[in-house]
Amino acid sequence: MLIKLIRLFRGYVYFSVIGTYPERFINVLNKSGITYWNMIPKHGKLTGYMLVYDYKNIRPYAKGASVKLRCIKKSGFPFLLKKYSFRKGAVIGAVLALAVMFLLSNFVWDIKINGRERLSTSEICSALEDCGLKRGVLKSSVDFEAVERKLIMKIPEIRWISINALNGIAEVEIKEEIKKPKVKKGKYPCNLTADSDGIITKTIVNKGTCEVKKGSAVMKNQVLVSCVVKGTNEAENKLSFVHSNGKIYADIEYEKKFIIPNKKNNIILNSNYNEKSNLNFLWTSLPLKLDCPKSEIYGEIPYEKSLVFNNVTLPIGISSRKIYGFTETEKILDKSSAKKLLLKQSRLSEIFNIGKYSVKDIKYSFKEINNSYKLTSTYTVNKNIAKVRRVQVKKSKKHNR
Amino acid sequence: MRKKVNKLSEKVPVDFKYNLPVIEFTGNRRAVIEGSTGVILYSDDIIKINTRMSPITFKGRGLSINCISSTCVIVEGFILSVEFVN
Questions:
Q1: B83 at the A interface (CB within 8 A)?
Q2: Which of A222, A304, A360, B39 could form a disulfide with A380 if both were Cys (CB 3.0 to 4.6 A apart)?
Q3: CB distance B64–A40 less than 8 Å?
Q4: A372-389 pLDDT, tens per residue?
Q5: For A147-173, how does the pLDDT look when each residue is reduced to its tens digit (9 = 90+)?
Q6: Which fold has domain A110-176?
Q7: A137 close to A106: Cβ distance less than 8 angstroms
Q8: Alpha helix (H) ranges present in B1-86?
């Protein structure tokens, strides 16, 4: 195969040897070390193949052996080049294309991330960009081993990483860290204390000694369930320390304040919509539209579309920005609309903060204070207030004796 | 001393001793001739190769020279007879 390729590249001829003694010509060729192949007798003459370079030099030998040479067919790259030599543009174009391909293959044009599970592609890509690996960067300017080290330092969730840059594509192989399962430590002695002030409504004690009763008021950090337990039998009439476990429900009251000024700046979407597109080619970005947004306040939504061929993102694409114009208006709030707005805020806060507890009572008080409106929401909520607090137990020497 | 020389000459291979060509056959399809000095006749039914000893004629059907160098020739085809002409 390789020999065939070399012959094709150098060019060869299919020729015939006509004469009384063509064998003499073969002997002369052998002695002079000229290569030929497939020399076969055909219709009283010999036919064979020879490289163009050798064929040019065998005329004297043919004359000496008194044979005539006839070239039947010419094949190979030099003849092809000669055939299309008048099409200089095509040849130059082909050479240029090859040169450009060679030049561009030295850059990273696409980054593929394999093996990620919890981490997002954008997160890894932005970290890679910070480490110096991004689209359009020269391969030789990037120290891939250093990038690997930096990325592991930057994203601790990555356990192993390998970057292979081949043909303009940087393939990032990642193995994520396996998280340790949380081990419940429930053997140490601990009390259950109140995490806020309240009135006890219900007690469920699985382990430990309950120190409070239903209806009693407790303060923050007060012990609700003690870890000290007395033995029931006389023989076992000793104090022991346990890991207290239980739920203590209490009614808690807390308030939240919401304040808004009576003058409010509203930003409203107007009809000024514009789309700005840029043509990205290699490292350059050419604007397709030269319009500018007319509004003073505007928001942008960027998006990018790149040409993909055979699952490889090519360095040609369009990046666009949808630009929306906004206008700012000042609005003076009246009492009723301010109250509505504050109530909305308060309800939103209720959903996120106290949505999981059972709400017993809500009181709202609305006031107008110095160019602003104030809403105070007071909630009465029933929730589990027990909080685990570890207890240090030291064995005294006397007791040991 | 003479006896020793004679013993030594007995151990030397015949082809080396008399400068004879070595012919190796693969069935009747292929023959490798080492020690050839040139081709005398080349057609698809007769190939005559000159050696240091005497010309060797291969007769058969569809004969061709597969490979040739200054001292070695490989003849391929359906070989029917080999003649050593003196």
A1: no
A2: A360
A3: yes
A4: 899 999 989 898 999 888
A5: 999 999 999 888 899 999 887 889 999
A6: Ubiquitin-like (UB roll) (3.10.20)
A7: no
A8: 2-11, 14-18
